[in-house]
Design brief:
The chain is an alpha/beta fold. It is built from ten helices and 26 strands. Bound molecules: flavin-adenine dinucleotide. Flavin-adenine dinucleotide binds next to helix 1, helix 7 and strand 22. One of its GO terms (molecular function) is dioxygenase activity.
């Protein structure tokens, strides 16, 4: 039997590559190498239901080792790949052993950006990326009354909501002038600011954290550059992630703040594809795009598997994402970048509304809060390239599905 297809990284995307290889008809060996000690798991609940105690650990796992074995996927946990040799089609594991591959998929994900601060090494300071991080955070949360969250992005705010719901004193320190600034429009930042404050969370914007304070190796607070101090038995940093592209870069594969892939998830090296959080795509205007989401990890994983089998399956699905904070479910469809106006549908006061983002008359994206039906319709409309007019979108009485039911307008030349 020939060499297997090897997948480096047993997260959401690596698993998808493995399963898609089988469903696309690859009969040869599939080796799924994961650095973590556990089977592939869902990361989103780590900062949501699982941390809140509303989901069991067993529910996190996407596939059991037995289910993988049934599909003849040779899953090896605790296996870190240390080096690649693209010319010889071999890789070296951290224990020094070597393996040949027929095709290679890199799905190494991302890691948390480290806090560049004095005191970051103290006990009680955490990032939230892995199951292991979450177990340790849950333990520390139970043992403290005061929590500081550094970074008001999705993960920091989801954690803040869980901690506040447990009656903890929570302070969120955000360097930017608004929350989740990278991902949501100002109107949603304002909504979430009010939501967190209504739940008793202290949110400070435009602050720069200077140091984590501690004694005898344990964190007890945070000092800001303006001299203010906040008490904390637990400090959680959510200041973004860095793609794990070092393995690829060291092997000579083109990287630029992520492993560069084309629309079919191919890298610059023959027989090597990459997918998920470790990748970056260059857009037509030369800018780089990295989507850190389950949807991207899955869709790109499918495209990567097809590419390994010599098939072109461009990864083009429209992005979608979600976030749970308190009783509010945010669901985002499409990308709002480039929008020149937004219209509101529903009621902000009732915490049930959607923002439709347009460029001209063209719908680009829809952010829905507690309106799952609108979100699902938005995805279908965006996929079909259909737009309600802004006036229709703003009118809660207007049935959005009629936009999908009517024939598409003739293309103007
Ligand atoms: C707390 C949290 C909440 C999130 N919430 C949402 C959400 O609500 N919605 C959403 O869409 N997305 C969410 N995300 C993002 C989403 O989980 C990621 O985009 C997705 O998991 C990416 O999958 P991946 O397989 O590319 O990477 P990962 O899941 O990071 O998996 C990569 C794996 O590769 C392993 N690895 C790395 N290097 C090596 C090596 N050299 N050898 C062997 N193994 C290696 C890593 O240990 C890791 O297990 C969340 C993420 C986190 C952390």
């Amino acid at each position: 039997m020939g060499a297997p297809i090897v997948i480096v990284g047993a997260g959401q995307s690596g698993l998808q590559v493995a399963e898609s290889l089988r469903s696309e008809g690859w009969e040869g060996g599939i080796l799924l190498l994961g650095e973590e000690a556990v089977p592939p798991y869902h990361r989103p609940p780590l900062s949501k239901a699982y941390l809140a105690g509303k989901a069991e650990e067993a529910q996190l796992f996407i596939r059991s080792p037995e289910a993988l074995a049934k599909k003849r996927i040779d899953f090896r946990p605790g296996s870190r790949v240390a080096a690649l040799d693209i010319a010889r089609q071999t890789l070296t594991l951290a224990d020094g052993s070597q393996l040949d591959y027929e095709g290679l998929a890199l799905a190494t994900g991302a890691r948390n950006r480290a806090l560049p601060l004095p005191g970051a090494e103290l006990d009680g300071v955490f990032g939230l990326r892995t199951l292991d991080d979450t177990r340790r955070i849950a333990e520390a949360l139970a043992a403290t009354e005061a929590v500081v969250v550094i970074g008001g992005g999705f993960i920091g705010l989801e954690f803040a909501a869980v901690a506040a719901a447990q009656g903890k004193r929570v302070t969120v320190l955000e360097a930017a002038e608004r929350l989740m600034a990278r991902a949501v429009p100002p109107a949603l930042s304002d909504f979430y600011l009010a939501l967190h404050r209504a739940h008793g969370v202290r949110v400070e914007l435009g602050v720069s954290v200077a140091a984590v304070l501690g004694e005898q190796g344990r964190a007890h607070g945070v000092r800001c550059a303006d001299g203010r101090e906040f008490e904390a038995g637990l400090v959680v940093a959510g200041i973004g992630v860095l793609p794990n592209d070092e393995l690829a870069a060291a092997a000579g594969i083109a990287c630029d703040r992520g492993i560069l892939v084309d629309a079919c998830s191919r890298t610059s090296a023959p027989n090597v594809v990459a997918s998920g959080d470790c990748t970056v795509t260059r857009l037509e205007d030369g800018s780089l795009r990295r989507l850190e989401s389950v949807q991207a990890a899955v869709e790109q994983g499918k495209s990567a598997a097809a590419a390994l089998l010599g098939r072109e399956r461009p990864f083009s699905a429209r992005p979608w994402f979600w976030s749970d904070q308190y009783e509010v479910k945010l669901q985002m469809a499409g990308l709002a970048a480039g929008a020149d106006r937004s219209v509101l549908r529903g009621s902000q006061e009732a915490h049930a509304f959607s923002l439709f983002h347009y460029r001209g008359e063209q719908l680009l994206a829809v952010d829905s809060l507690n309106q799952p039906q609108v979100h699902m319709l938005a995805r279908r409309m965006l996929d079909a390239g259909r737009s309600p007019t802004p006036a229709q979108a703003a009118d809660s009485g207007f049935e959005l599905n009629t936009v999908l039911a009517t024939p598409a307008p003739a293309m103007s030349s």
